[in-house]
Design a protein that fits this description.
By secondary structure, the protein is of the alpha+beta class. It is about 25% helix and about 35% strand. The strands form six sheets. Strands 6-7-8-3-9-10 form a six-stranded mixed sheet, with helices on both faces. A four-stranded antiparallel sheet has the order 2-1-4-5, with helices on one face. The protein has a four-stranded antiparallel sheet with strand order 11-14-21-22. Helix 2 packs parallel to helix 4. Belongs to the ABC transporter superfamily.
Length: about 350
Amino acid sequence: MAKITLDNLAHSYLSNPASEDDYALKELNHDWEDGAAYALLGASGCGKSTLLNIISGLLQPSQGRILFDGKDVTNAATAQRNIAQVFQFPVVYDTMTVRDNLAFPLRNRGRDEAYVSDRVQEIARMIGMEDMLNKKARGLTADAKQKISLGRGMVRKDVNALLFDEPLTVIDPHMKWELRTQLKKLHNEFGHTMIYVTHDQTEALTFADKVVVMYDGRVVQIGTPQELFETPEHTFVGYFIGSPGMNVIPARIEGTRAYLDGSYVELGRGYGALDGKVEIGVRPEFARLSQSEGLPVKIRRIEDVGRHKIIRADFFGHDINIIAGEDEQVSADMNRVSFDPERVNVYADDWRIKGEAA
């Protein structure tokens, strides 16, 4: 295992980048803890795979350094970094059996056959392929081949880090859940440093100790699932985490109030003068409909998803979402909405402003 340090790291695919906009990966300075499980989460094109490939050594950064436990590995080849990487699409040896595919990384490092046999059997059980060990990889489904690829990535116990680049893309939904569970079990048992790239928030939140949210080539927040939900540091985090995401509404802030078209929302903290684009953000879970309390809202439709209801509404000309409990009654005369003041975040130019205790 290794602590991974990103020191003044940035990358551009252009030979002569002239501005920050030319960088696919904006400058990063982060320490990733030894033995922690991280998920790199963001939309397609945000820089997740670029960062992963720099960590693995498949890509040389335009500037900065990568350190494993304080040792500079920026110019080290992938093989010298002692990592295992699993890619989005399966990479297997078609002419080998499943058993030999799983055994290959261990035999390549000279482990004795008794250990190889035991470890291969253990990994085959984890990925549900014990009955296929003697089959050739050629002719297997993409789903099965990706499980082999995952197993080969997990078979070594002595790696500095395990890197996963959207590894469950071709796996059926039920097997995705099982493999995520097995990956988490593997992490708890052996304590590998793991980095898991995905655009799926469910995968990220159920797998990782900490989620690294990326937007437009920049890390906008690193936090636990609870931190990302309760205090999104950037409006993108609020939008991307949650279903539906956070409501973001333009506002004018004065002290402990957010003004919207002459009406106001109470805030749990106080704020000074704010410049730029100013907005409030509140999760649908922290909004409540009523007949008499709060500000006017116009319900457009109600979606019953079983465990709760999602109310789609118009609020001063802006679309907002409100979540009501499964047993909560929603009637036509409930045309006002209120927000929990302690759960309302304030943003200036998309970044959260902390404010002072009220």
